[in-house]
Amino acid sequence: MTLKQVFIIGHKNPDCDSVCSAIGYAYFKNIVDKRYLYIPARAGELNSETKFALEKFNFEPPIEIESLAPTASDMELKKPIVASPYDSLKDVASLMKERGIRTVPIVDSTRRLLGIIGLKDIAEHYIGTMGFGDLSTTPIDLNILVNTLDAKVIANPKNIDKLKGRIFIAAMQKSTILNRVRAGDIVILGDRTDVQIDLINSGCSALIITGDSAISQEVISLAAKKGTLIVSSPYHTFDTAKLFALSTPLHVIMSKEVPVAGLYTRISEIRRKVAESKYRCVLLVNGDKRLIGIITRTDLLHPIRKKVILVDHNEISQAADGVQEAEILEIIDHHRVGDISTLMPIHVHNEPIGSTCTIVAGFMFLHQIDIPAEIAGLLLAGILSDTLILTLSTTTERDKEIAHKLADILDVGIEEYGKELLTASINIKSKSAREILLHDFKEYLLGTKKVGVGQIMVLNEDEMGVKEEDIKSEMERLRKENQYDLVAFLITNPLRKGEEILVKGDKMIIEKAFAVKIENDKCTIPRTLSRKKDFIPAIGYFCERLNSVKEDFGGDKYDI
Question: Is residue 347 exposed (0-12), middle (13-18) or buried (19+ Cβ within 10 Å)?
Answer without folding.
Answer: exposed
